[in-house]
Amino acid sequence: MNQYQIFYDLHHQAQPLLLANAWNVKSAQIIEKAGFNAIATSSGAIANSLGYNDGEQIPFEELLYIVKRIKASTNIPLTVDLERGYTNDLDVLNSHIQQIIDIGATGINIEDNQGEDIFLEKLKSITKYLTHTNQKLFINVRTDVFVQKLDNPIETVINRAKLYKDAGADGLFVIGLKDLETTEKIAHSVQLPLKVVGISSLSSVEELTRIGVKRISMAGILYSAGYEKINSLVKIIKEENSLSTLY
């Protein structure tokens, strides 16, 4: 079974796919060694680690270098956070998709914060390209309905989920969900595997399993938690004028 099929199947099992998000080779290797079934990248964490702000401020070539090194140094499926695709040119977008496939990634996240119409153009271009070239890539679409505070968010998400599924999406990521009731309603109303970020109010894998969530990620939270620990350590070393806290 190839890695694409393994990754696809992980979205269609009783237990949700739990993903830790990497930002470099070392973090990815730690995730793999811990026993996770796949690795996701966090675009925000990668960008921040290289001194860029989130939101496609990092050049695609630099992002690609990092994810290429991650894939070359690990053995489990990798899905890449591609933000908006790092272009509005559909030919360039398809080139980016091919480069992601060429490094061995099995999936992408791509988001609709430019609006439904522009996003559908991009999504249809990607799926047409994959069909034309006879290639597979798990497309997890992120909808920003809640974070953009659009009207009737639940209904809008459900409507977009149908449009995106019809256009070839494989999974749905709803960012901005904060409670189990809303999450459950969406999970039971869409035909795509639902992904959420495991924020504090959605941190119980058992509860998320019960309500039908199929994929849980940590986004940039793991990255932030790790560097908070480093920040605390170096402050103590400086204040105490001692390295003893390292041992």
Give the topology.
Blueprint: H1 3-9, E1 17-22, H2 25-33, E2 39-41, H3 43-49, H4 60-72, E3 78-81, H5 90-102, E4 107-111, H6 116-132, E5 138-143, H7 153-166, E6 171-174, H8 180-187, E7 194-197, H9 205-210, E8 215-217, H10 221-240
Parallel strand pairs: 1-2, 1-8, 2-3, 3-4, 4-5, 5-6, 6-7, 7-8
Helix pairs in contact: 2-4, 5-6
Structure description:
The chain has 247 residues and is of the alpha/beta class. Helix content is 46%, strand content 14%. The chain is built from 10 helices and 8 strands. It has helices spanning 3-9, 25-33, 43-49, 60-72, 90-102, 116-132, 153-166, 180-187, 205-210, 221-240, and strands at 17-22, 39-41, 78-81, 107-111, 138-143, 171-174, 194-197, 215-217. Strands 1-2-3-4-5-6-7-8 form an 8-stranded parallel β-barrel, surrounded by 7 helices. Helix 5 (90-102) links the parallel strand 3 and strand 4 (107-111). The mean pLDDT is 97.
Provide keyphrases for this structure:
247 residues, alpha/beta, globular
- CA-based shape: globular
Count of alpha/pi helices: 10
Structural class, from secondary structure content?
Answer: alpha/beta
Radius of gyration: 18 Å
